[in-house]
Structures are given as C-alpha cells and as structure tokens.
Amino acid sequence: MASTQFLCSSHLFPSSRSSFRSSHLPRFKPYGSSNFHSKLHCQRPHLVRAMVSDSNTSRKQVEIEYDPEGRINKLADEVDKDAPFSRLTLFSPCKINIFLRITNKREDGYHDLASLFHVISLGDIIKFSLSPSKTTDRLSTNVSGVPLDDRNLIIKALNLYRKKTGSDKFFWIHLDKRVPTGAGLGGGSSNAATALWAANQFSGCLATEEELQEWSSEIGSDIPFFFSQGAAYCSGRGEIVQNIAPPLSLDIPMVLIKPQEACSTAEVYKRLRLDQTSNVDPLTLLENIKRNGISQDVCINDLEIPAFEVLPSLKRLKQRIIAASRGEHDAVFMSGSGSTIVGVGSADPPQFKKKKKKKKRRRRRRRMTLFHFFNCAILTFGPHAVYYSATPLSEYDTLGTSIKAAVVYLATALVKLICLATFLKVSESDSFDPYQELLKALIGFIDVAGLYFALAQLTHRNISQNHKFQAVGLGWAFADSVLHRLAPLWVGARGLEFTWDYILQGLEANANLVLSISLAALGSLMWLRKNKPKTLIPIIYVCAGIVATMPSITSYLRRGLGWHFPKIVGFELFTSLVMAFISWQLFSACQRPSL
Predict the structure, then answer these.
(1) Which of 4-8, 286-290, 548-552 is the most confident on average?
(2) Does domain 4-31+40-243 correspond to CATH entry 3.30.230.10?
(3) Beta 240-243 vs 138-141: how paired, if at all?
(4) Which one of the listed residues 60, 95, 404, 440 is annotated catalytic?
(5) pLDDT greater at residue 444 or residue 15
(6) What average pLDDT does this structure show over 172-190?
(7) CATH class (in words) of the domain with range 253-344
(8) Which of 176, 222, 447, 480 is catalytic?
C-alpha cells in the first residue's frame, strides 16, 4: 500500500496562477474502492471565506474563516503565487481493521491489541498554508460539530511538533471532512498524522519519519499506523507498527455502511470482557490472510460484542447486511470500535427486504418484551413483598412505617444528588479516582443520617423496637429499587433481545434489600440500644461502616480492578449474606441479659 511519502509527498501542489482545478485532486490510489453510506452524504457542505491581503513583502496572505452561509467558495488558492512552497494540499485516508484482537488489559488502564490495519480510498482533504501569526493556528472545516481548538487532533499534532522540534511556524488549516466521527475508521488519527507530516515539510524536515511516528503515539494510539506503507500489523496499544504486504488487491470493491448513531470508544471498552474475546492467535489470523486472503473466518473483532451492547441496532444491521448480500461479500465485519460495518468483495449496497406483516410482528414482540420486563420486575421487587408477608411486619401492620421510611430515603437521595452535583468533578474517564471515590463515600454517609432519622423519629403504636428496624430497612430498600432500577427495567428490559444484565440488576436489588435491613439493624444497635456489651461496640461500628461504604467498594472493584458486572453482583450477594449473619448474631447477643 501507499507509503507515507506516497501518501503525502505525492500530494504537494505548488501554487499556480490558475484556479484550483480537478487536476489538483489527490492522486492517492487505495487498495479497494468504497461506497460510503452515511448521513454526511446527504449534507450540503459549508464553505469558507478567503480574505486576501497584501503584505509589504508582496506575499499574499489568506485568512480562512468559517462561513456558515456557504455563499463564497474561495479556498486558499490565492496564497503567495510566487513562493515555491507556501501551500500544501494533502489527502488523509481512513482505515479499516481487518481483524482486531484484544489480548490484555494493562496496568495503566489501556488494552493491548493485535490488529491488521488497512487504508482505503475514503478520506479527508486537508489544506495547509503558513500563518503570519506566531501564537496560534487557525482551523476551519466544512461540517459542524468538529472542534476547532486544541481538542482537535490536528491542533494537538501541530503543538506536539513545535514542542519536539522548537519550530515557530503556525498554520491556517482547512479540513474538508468526509470521514464521519465515531465510525471506527480513524479519521481523526489520520488527520493528526497528516498534520505532523505537513508541519515537518514546512519546517524543512527537522525530523525523520521514524521520529514523527514515534512522537505521534503520545497523542493517539492509532496515529503511528498512518506513517506506515498502508497495511500493517499493529500491536501494543496500536503504536507498534509492522509493515506487511497489502492483503487487499487494487481492484477489490467494498461497501461501508454507518448508521447515524456513533459508538463511544470509552463505553465500548468499558463493557469489554476479556473472557468473551476470541482465543485465536492473531499471528495465526495474519498468516491465514497472507496465505488464503480475506474471509469471514479471519475477520474477527473482539470489540463487536461490547459495541453491540452499546448499540444493539448495530448487531441487527450486520445481520441484515449478511442476509441481504446473499454471499456476494467475502467478509462482513465491524471496523474498530464501531459503528461502521464493512463488506469486502462487492461495492453494491445491500438490498434489504421489506418486512411483511409488520403490525403482527410488532404486537408479538411487544408481548414478548413486556413478559421479560415483568419477570425482571418480579425478581427485583418480589422479595420485598415476600419479606413483608413472611415476617411479623404484616401482622403488626407496619406498612405505614415502611412507606414513611421510603419517603425519608427519597429526601435523603435528593440531598445526596445536590451534594454530588456541587462537589463532585464530572469526568468522562472510567478509571478509578481515589479522591473522587472518597468524596462520594463521605457524601454517601448522608444515607446513614437519613436512616438515623427514620429509626429515631418514625413511630408506630403496635411495633416493637425489634421489628422497627425491619420495617425501616424494608422501606429503605424498596425506595432505592424504585429510584435506581424501575426506570432502567422499563426502558431496557423491554428490548427486542434478551439480556442477562437486567436479571443481574434484580439480583443486585435483592442483595441491597439484605444490606439495607442489616444496616438498619446495626443502626438500631448503635443509636437505640443502650445496654449493649461494650466489647461488641467496635464490631458494630466496623460492620456498619462496611455496609455503608459498599457502593465505593464495588466501584473500586469495577474501575480499579476491572471486575465485570456478574462478578460484582456475586460479590454483593455473598457480602450481603455474610453481613446479615453477623448483624443477626450481634443483635441476638445484645438481646441477651447481661450477667
């Protein structure tokens, strides 16, 4: 495939006195053509306004400004006609992952991968020109929603180049964006590699391509690949690049289909479970591709399962493409972390069949999904009713006390929400932050204060102290389940596909019921029981502290140790039973008369 020089230096277009013509278009010839079906295809691109001013040195400078009305289509073609090297127009191709294996989770939170990257003909056009400014770069683009400040990888790449080389050059850049974001095609990474190469050309090649490739890994794991020859076996975080002979021939067609929804890479990796990944050696996949070419068996993507959980419609889209292609595609697979589905072997868009008897199917599906919802709801809330009926709570008619405790819980949850919104820093990172978790644990003790109020102030004429904590704990747990689980069940458990996640949420609610009653029992011993053995007081407080900080403990297991949801729910069930047994023993010991 195209090397970096073929990718970039073949697209040096010296300024001329003629206008920008079709002959100036990039000459990049990829391995395979592509038809890209996405929302961007139907958008009318916004244009830019070019403001030309003459300087004392007779060099014409152009300031590129965003023109949302799109009335003027003068780009930067009037920049310095006489200068030998003042303007650079480059093609920035995207890539697909023919296979993507996730092999390990690293201590720094990243994942080790092994993947076969391959560039294709779809890409962006980026135009660079020198800026008279010595402080800032200016970036414009033809689509909305693309950041134009230092959040953009192009600006990050230029800042990185100046930091590494000491160059003082700044640029005007116009990005003609054709690769959509959130597609798993590496469009932003390719833009960053192109920007590094362009900055190096403008600065007289202060760095080698090997140095550019090494530096680029500091701002993105996929960027080093775009300094390869167009096809490479990438490992580590993606920054270890080994060039290989391109497995896709020049004339092979392909089709790329991207839904309007995008997949969040962070959310996909958050749901990744290593025990669900493929066990095929990536080197074996690479060898099979070299020997036999592309087939469905070798196009393995370990991120498909978590991506389909994030975006269930993506799984159905892939299945429909396979069914509609009728064997015309050699392979159909997802690229990167999604949400683009790639079909190799045919450039014809799949012809999806219209569904027959649509109304009947919808009714049948609605009945099936409501059945799943009711099953999950019974698992979540059924134990509350069973506990109330099977204990003396129903005999003493303590429903009113439980309802009052639930109201106290809701008021407590509102106070917690205000405190969290005020003091907790919002972060998109899913890594474990000890300071933030400590702050959440401290705010979580508001629950303990609310529980104290419920135990001390709520009264019932027929209830004894021994049963009061049960009524309060039951109301507390029921309100928590309604607040945190009813809405997710109603929205998610009615999905068209069965998932164990909502069954696990029901089991988690059962563990929370046991923990709430245990905490209420320990609180009753701490605050209401006066004549309790002094030797048991430290044990009571330690157990109450453990139960009160269970949310922080499970957060550490998930974010710090990388435990998955089923394992966490198992831990919560086990811990709830242990704490219930200890609380029962402590309560019984405090009931015995002292000698």
Answers:
(1) 286-290
(2) yes
(3) unpaired
(4) 95
(5) 444
(6) 93
(7) alpha beta
(8) 222
